[in-house]
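Quiz preparation item.
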């Protein structure tokens, strides 16, 4: 029995910092925005005008504080950001606007408030420009493209299985996809077309007596044009579960697990199909 598992790059577990960004940072962001709103709403109770130095200090402190909160939230254009983190980032524009209005109505020095307004506008333009540049490029019909890619990879895997069952390779030869000689540990075929780059790899893996787990690392040199789609299945040997772990442009990790423990060494031959879409095709 062949077991196949695939994990895309976007589904890998997030770090502790990502968890904080996506869940907890919204709390100080909401607090800052609400506090600025309350101060602005009660501005008519302030009888003493704010001095120039105080105006500039409050304005600069607010801009720096908002920068820290946005740094904690992370850019909302990043795919890993949650809606909470995105709204925490967006709310800081409202916070800065409220503080600038508060300084305008409570400060007696228009020059100081003008400086704060200029700095606030420049700050927002810079932040939003950086966020816009980090936005991922949009491809045409990505769902349809992924579907075609997956179908192509599955077709090549089926072809490898049929070839492995029907073709008896001569000793010492490395044939087409799915064929690997007894003394050969690894066979690669790397090709390129107008859609991207493909790799068909056959890998022989030895499990020692009593061993159940193996990790295989495959390096792509030169690296692929993008994060590839990966499928893997076993061709020969005992039943094994294959998990496609981390996938990068420069390589990938496969995790193999035998369905049972053997008292003697066993070999497993797996077939890996990789496809990376070129930027021109995207």
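Solution:
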């Amino acid at each position: 029995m062949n077991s196949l598992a695939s994990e895309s790059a976007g589904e890998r577990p997030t770090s502790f910092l990502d968890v904080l960004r996506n869940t907890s940072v919204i709390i100080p962001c909401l607090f800052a925005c609400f506090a600025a709103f309350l101060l602005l709403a009660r501005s008519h109770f302030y009888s003493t005008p704010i001095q120039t130095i105080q105006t500039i200090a409050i304005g600069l402190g607010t801009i720096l504080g908002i920068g820290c909160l946005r740094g904690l939230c992370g850019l909302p254009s990043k795919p890993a950001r949650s809606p909470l983190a995105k709204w925490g980032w967006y709310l800081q524009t409202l916070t800065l606007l409220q503080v600038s209005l508060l300084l305008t109505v409570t400060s007696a020095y228009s020059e100081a408030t003008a400086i704060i307004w200029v700095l606030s506008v420049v700050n927002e333009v810079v932040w939003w420009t950086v966020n816009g540049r980090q936005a991922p490029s949009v491809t045409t019909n990505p769902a349809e493209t992924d579907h075609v890619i997956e179908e192509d990879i599955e077709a090549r895997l089926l072809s490898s299985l049929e070839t492995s069952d029907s073709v008896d390779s001569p000793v010492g030869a490395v044939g087409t996809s799915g064929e690997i000689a007894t003394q050969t540990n690894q066979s690669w075929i790397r090709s390129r077309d107008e859609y991207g780059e493909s790799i068909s790899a056959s890998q022989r893996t030895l499990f020692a007596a009593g061993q159940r787990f193996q990790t295989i690392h495959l390096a792509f040199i030169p690296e692929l044009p993008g994060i590839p789609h990966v499928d893997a299945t076993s061709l020969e040997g005992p039943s094994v579960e294959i998990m496609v772990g981390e996938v990068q442009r420069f390589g990938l990790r496969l995790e193999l697990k035998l369905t049972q423990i053997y008292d003697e060494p066993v070999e497993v031959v797996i077939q890996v199909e990789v496809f990376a879409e070129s930027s021109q095709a995207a």
